[in-house]
């Protein structure tokens, strides 16, 4: 049935997760799984718990070949499959060439030392596996630590690669945008130069024509002087407007500086808030660690209580043995007393044989009743001990379930902390990009204003060239005004340079903030490693306690076998005593006399 199902799934493109837990898959099923892994490209999660795949070596090797060829599976569960060191070696060869698997669960198999070494060696070539569970496989602790270190190295490597890729993408986008802006600025500058040249040529032609007209029409000089005066007034008004614009630009620059100071203060406040949040998170993590340590102490106390209960059970068993020995001694003493009484009765009362027989029957009944009562009490004690053992096993299962739930909650909290840190970094980067865009827009506006002022100065110069000899003073005045404008332009350039320097300083502060965030990440990674070490120690302690409990159960079984053996011996002895008494009574002369009568 599994072979037909997997054959149908080979061409399926919608199933993402497949769970075949506890289906008793054999060689044909393992081969069908290998074929499925070769052909299917949609399954991301595969669960094969409780299937004993490791017992079928050929089928499991075929399955490993399929896993080696698959590049889409991300999670694989192989718990309780009786995989030995040979199967672990084949699985390691498959993992060395697989590039998609991220999680592998091999708990409660029989991998051993050789299998653990093979898996550790394959991690040197596999850079995608992030999680590998090897609990309950008789793997030494040093190999488990080395495996954990290799997995941590893979996780760190993937995180570093992702961050580097993101930074490269951001830098490439910035470089392209800067190139586009520079090309646009260069084209604009070339166009402005061409326009200025054309305007200069036109102004020269117009000045030549006007000079000829002035030489021909000297009578119109008065009217021209009046017009010149009006033009001077217009130029003065234009200069006043330009000064007002320059003043407004200075105010705008001051406002921009104030905004930049406000933004820097906001950044400083945000940094302080982030530092406080980091300190709060560290406190929470330390609190969680203390809670985990307290839980470990509670578990140790529970284990100590279980050991005390086991000791109490052993004391009860010892008391039961003593009771058995006492009963056997009492039986022996009673048997001796019965023999003595029989001899005395034979000597003294030969005629009262019937009374003696009735007394003997009564004593036998009383002995049988006493034996039955003792057996019932022993059965009751054994049932109580079994009930206590069952309750202890249930308490152990509850403790294990609680430990697993606590570990899952701790992992979920770590995942939430990582996602929150990533979201905060993305928001900060977007905020910085918006600020850079606003600064570039303000810079473009300032450049446009400067270009407009330059165009106005060029127009004033063209008008000054068209004037006659009387306009020499006006030309000098225009030169002075041009010098003032140049000085103001230099001041603007210096102010722009200052703004650029301030932006670079802000960028340096942001890089320092990023370094601080990296330090926080390293602290979080150290805390995660501490949690992993604590969880591994807790697992080892649980395994040790389980081994001790199994030893105690074996001791209980041995004690029960000894009790049953003692019961059988006592029953045999009682039967032997009864037969001996009957034979003795039948062989005595009183018995023969009664038979004759």
TrEMBL record:
Transmembrane segments: none annotated. SMART domains: LRR_RI. It holds the Pfam family LRR_6. Keywords: Coiled coil, Cytoplasm, Cytoskeleton. One of its GO terms (cellular component) is centrosome. SUPFAM superfamilies: RNI-like. It is found in: Cytoplasm, Cytoskeleton, Microtubule organizing center, Centrosome. The keyword Coiled coil applies. Residues 154-181, 225-259, 289-569 form a coiled coil. PANTHER family: LEUCINE-RICH REPEAT-CONTAINING PROTEIN 45 (PTHR23170:SF3), NY-REN-58 ANTIGEN (PTHR23170). This is LRC45 protein. It comes from Oreocharis arfaki.
């Amino acid at each position: 049935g599994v072979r037909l199902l997997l054959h149908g799934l080979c061409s399926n493109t919608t199933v993402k997760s497949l769970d075949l837990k506890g289906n008793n898959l054999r060689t044909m099923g393992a081969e069908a799984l290998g074929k499925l892994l070769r052909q299917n490209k949609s399954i991301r999660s595969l669960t094969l718990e409780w299937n004993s795949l490791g017992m079928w070596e050929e089928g499991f090797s075929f399955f490993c070949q399929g896993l080696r060829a698959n590049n889409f599976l991300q999670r694989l569960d192989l718990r309780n499959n009786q995989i030995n060191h040979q199967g672990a070696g084949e699985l390691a060869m498959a993992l060395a060439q697989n590039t998609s698997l991220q999680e592998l669960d091999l708990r409660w198999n029989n991998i051993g030392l050789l299998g653990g070494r093979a898996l550790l060696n394959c991690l040197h070539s596999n850079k995608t596996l992030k999680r590998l569970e090897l609990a309950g496989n008789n793997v030494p602790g040093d190999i488990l630590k080395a495996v954990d270190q290799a997995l941590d190295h893979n996780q760190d490597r993937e995180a570093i690669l992702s961050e580097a890729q993101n930074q490269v993408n951001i830098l490439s986008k910035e470089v392209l945008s800067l190139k586009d802006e520079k090309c646009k600025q260069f084209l604009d500058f070339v166009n402005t130069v061409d326009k200025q040249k054309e305007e200069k040529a036109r102004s020269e032609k117009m000045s030549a024509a006007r000079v000829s007209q002035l030489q021909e029409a000297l009578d119109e000089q008065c009217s021209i002087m009046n017009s010149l005066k009006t033009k001077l007034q217009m130029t003065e008004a234009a200069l006043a407007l330009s000064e007002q614009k320059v003043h407004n630009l200075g105010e705008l620059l001051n406002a921009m500086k104030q905004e930049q100071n406000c933004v820097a203060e906001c950044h400083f406040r945000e940094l302080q808030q982030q530092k406080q949040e980091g300190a709060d998170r560290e406190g929470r993590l330390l609190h969680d660690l203390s809670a985990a340590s307290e839980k470990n102490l509670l578990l140790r106390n529970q284990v100590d209580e279980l050991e005390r209960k086991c000791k109490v059970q052993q004391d009860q068993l010892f008391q039961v043995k003593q009771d058995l020995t006492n009963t056997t001694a009492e039986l022996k003493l009673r048997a001796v007393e019965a023999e003595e009484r029989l001899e005395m009765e034979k000597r003294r009362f030969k005629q009262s044989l019937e009374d003696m027989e009735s007394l003997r029957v009564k004593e036998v009944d009383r002995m049988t009743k006493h034996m039955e009562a003792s057996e019932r009490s022993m059965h009751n004690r054994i049932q109580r001990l079994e009930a206590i053992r069952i309750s202890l096993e249930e308490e152990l299962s509850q403790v294990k379930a609680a430990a697993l739930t606590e570990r899952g909650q701790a992992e979920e909290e770590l995942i939430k902390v990582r996602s929150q840190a990533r979201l905060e970094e993305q928001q900060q980067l977007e905020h910085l990009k918006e600020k850079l865009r606003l600064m570039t827009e303000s810079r473009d506006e300032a450049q446009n204003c400067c270009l407009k002022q330059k165009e106005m100065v060029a127009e004033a110069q063209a008008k000054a060239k068209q004037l006659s000899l009387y306009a020499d003073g006006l030309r000098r005045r225009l030169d002075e005004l041009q010098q003032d404008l140049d000085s103001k332009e230099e001041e603007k350039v210096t102010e722009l340079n200052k703004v650029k320097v301030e932006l670079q300083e802000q960028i340096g502060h942001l890089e320092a903030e990023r370094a601080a965030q990296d330090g926080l990440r390293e602290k979080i990674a150290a805390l995660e490693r501490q949690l992993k070490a604590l969880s591994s120690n807790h697992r080892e302690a649980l395994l040790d306690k389980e081994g001790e409990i199994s030893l105690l159960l074996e001791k209980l079984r041995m004690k029960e076998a000894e009790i049953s053996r003692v019961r059988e011996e006592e029953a045999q002895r009682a039967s032997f005593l009864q037969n001996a008494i009957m034979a003795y009574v039948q062989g005595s002369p009183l018995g023969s006399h009664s038979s004759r009568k």
